[in-house]
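Team,

Forwarding the record for the chain on the shared tracking sheet. I've put the sequence and predicted structure together so nobody has to dig through attachments.
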Amino acid sequence: MIDSVAEDFELPVTGGGTFRLGDHADQIVVLYFYPRDGTPGCTTEARQFRDLHREFVEAGCIVAGVSRDSLRSHENFKARYELPFDLLSDADEKLCARFSVIKDRKLYGKPARGIERSTFVFDRGVLRREWRGVKVPGHAQQVLDFVRTIPESGSK
């Protein structure tokens, strides 16, 4: 999958409308999957991407978060934490399935199914890097550091 052209997709996005990967074929796209709006780890991760957002933009990059939550939940989460990037709703789990981020796990000792925190970087439509089983502390900076290694990423 790395270094292969990504199949286009579209999902409903905060602010109305639809996010299509193909609409960003001339940019670097960071797509991060997270389990649920408002949970401690997801909030910390979103805030880290928020705090580095200007640097991502300066590197010619857009950031978007994806979870199974509704657009209403995403709108509230985005407003509460002043997130400057879009959140995509994958309520039917089609994109999650495509990227194999839905995992069976235990939650408080009981079986649960959810999103494994994962991040993907697309360079002008080509998947260049992925992180799976992400640990939140420092992850957004790690992604930014990688984006900065992509040739001509800072020239946009």
